[in-house]
Amino acid sequence: MCLIVFDWRPHASAGALFTLAANRDEFLRRTAEPLHWWRATDDVTSPGSSPEGVLAGRDLVGGGTWLGMTRGGRFAALTNYRAPNDMRPDAPTRGTLVSRWLTGAQGLPTTPLGYLDEVARSGDLYNGFNLIVGDWARRELAWYCNRADRAPALLPEGTHGISNAVLDTPWPKLVRKRAELAELAASATQAPLTRLVEMMRDPRVAPDRELPATGIPLERERALSAAFIETPDYGTRGTTALRVSVRGAQLDVEALERSDDDGSHRIVRPGVFEREEAFTVAAG
């Protein structure tokens, strides 16, 4: 996942509590399963965990996932931190940091901040990442980056964004999409999830003068500056839109994914396959 923008309203008494739009960018050769309710055999990376009740895609190469949620109200999402000169080929896969929270692996803390504190103890073993974990029923959302000089922290109310640098780093595509989401979130009428998906499928690249310098060639930097990336070997493999709304004593969760995979690993560019899910969570 390379671009996530989200609006967080932990004090909401009605309406949207959490609204998210996210693009997953990945090499086209890397196989994965699209959004689905996990089966008992889907998570083999976390002994003692329970994958039932997890709604997420699944990485078939390294295991784990990039974004997911549960019927109990847990949520997690991850982006890689772009540091091409600081990559270890023997580092453990980062996707299991998401799946371990979602599946409730035995012995791990059960609060978002407690879990991230645990992750931070071994954060230097991994290549760079940003990790968001939440518990909607507890109204807690927390963030940690293992390449930032900051401890894990609960996130304040507001509209935020993460790409392949630390939280709210003002890369052009992040600034643009965060502003667009904030405008939609402020509207008196909730935008349909399809509108959030279309917002993220934006192929415009940034002017060279606005590009960050992350250690990759200029041509690559230019291509990756688009919200929706399309190159011969790498691109935006899927877009997820998510809304959690407060309705009395429950939370209504709506999720929509548009991806390049119909479930059989037949890649279609750009992705056209859609999956929709809706469920409720006790508000706690």
TrEMBL record:
InterPro entries to which the protein is assigned, alphabetical: TANGO2
High-level lineage: Bacteria, Pseudomonadati, Pseudomonadota, Betaproteobacteria, Burkholderiales
Superkingdom: Bacteria
PANTHER family: SER/THR-RICH PROTEIN T10 IN DGCR REGION (PTHR17985), TRANSPORT AND GOLGI ORGANIZATION PROTEIN 2 HOMOLOG (PTHR17985:SF8)
Organism this protein belongs to: Paraburkholderia unamae
Pfam families named among the record's database cross-references: TANGO2 (PF05742)
Protein name per the record: Uncharacterized protein with NRDE domain
